[in-house]
Amino acid sequence: AAAAPAAHLTPAGQRSPAERFPRGAAVICVARDSELFGQRGTVQKSDDAAGLEARFELGLTQEERRALQLEVQEIIARQQASLNWYELQDVAAQAELDLHVTRQILGSLMARCDYVREDIGMNLLCEAKGDGAALCLPGYSVKSQGRWRFSELAIKALRDYHAQFPEIFKALRNRYNTDRDLETRSAFQDSRDADYAAKQLVKYCNACPFKKLRLVPAQHSALTSDGIEEVTRAVDRAYRQLEGRPVHTEVLHESEALLRTADAASHPPAELFPHTEVLLGQRGMYLWSRGAVPCGAKGTVVGIYGVGAAQELELLLDKESFGATDLHGRTPAMRGLLAP
What we know:
Number of strands: 19
Number of helices: 10
Structural class: alpha+beta
Helix content: 25-40%
Strand order of the largest sheet: 14-3-2-1-15
């Protein structure tokens, strides 16, 4: 069998523009100074002699993108100014509970429910097994300088839990051996059906946001669910500006301005990646060619967890994507992404 023809190489030993960007290939404009920056388009012509032509539909203008980023930053600033954090004794006082009870219910609380072990605690203050590293719940709890603090959202959830199941809180008052599981049958001894009450307790806990959210490292920053909703509305408003606008297309000819989304060997310019730390509310593009969502998807950073190589980012995508989730209820469906 005849060998496949060798790829045409430029004098520098690289593939020619026609090979890098074949006709019909999906591309992204990566030229920062272009109105098309971040837009996805299609290669219409690709010939080493005739040149390269990629066609794009114009999206948000540079001015509109800057205005959206400014609006998001204002949302972040308002949340940080209005979000109050309380120490454990203050949480107990505001919820009108004993400190001993509050400490138990805010952590991990194992209980026997119909011969099955269930964690009915709120998991707002936890420590990892092994190294004992603090694990927090975004928007609910933080630990800094060795001290736990809790948000108004945590206090509200604690009050609701107490109102729904006062029997559990009453049982915790006299529970001093925390190594033993709480017996829900004893807690619901005055109930007409203790087993049914225990099942309702587990159902309630599993439906609460504090059970759906994942635990995160102590070193983190994250928007609350209300803050994410506000950012979502701002992003959606910005894109609604395009609905009544005539479709405008533009053409690019420079291969340096393009990134081919399906080519794993195609690398975005280094200047696109921030040399400073990523900030909450920062907007950007997802540029992984074989990731969970399409390369070029735009989004807003709504959570930053950890530091260095282990750092993870929560993104609120501008548009729905099949590879996205709701980040355990923190974002709208199909618009949340956890990215390394």
